[in-house]
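Backbone shape codes
____________________
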Amino acid sequence: MEDVKQYSYDRAKKRVDDLKSFYYSLVAYCIVIPFLWWVNSWTTDFLWAIFPTVGWGIGLVSLWMTSHGYNPIFGKEWEERKIREFMDNKEF
């Protein structure tokens, strides 16, 4: 029974850590990206700030998906199927 509680605690702690990571990155994004656009507007006509905006934005979406347990490729069904596969495997 203690193992189940520890497992639940570890999963909850990982989820909280993922959420913190997402929120820290979101705050940094909201501070840094406008600054980069401001620098871009004062330095050149080429819109180079679009590259960090889109790149970091894709990373933020990935962090959001991780923190909320959404994964279209390795979702719950895939995870459960793999767990059953490993449990049925006698060599494991």
Q: What stands out?
A: The mean pLDDT is 87. The radius of gyration is 20 Å. Helices lie at 2-43, 50-67, 76-88.
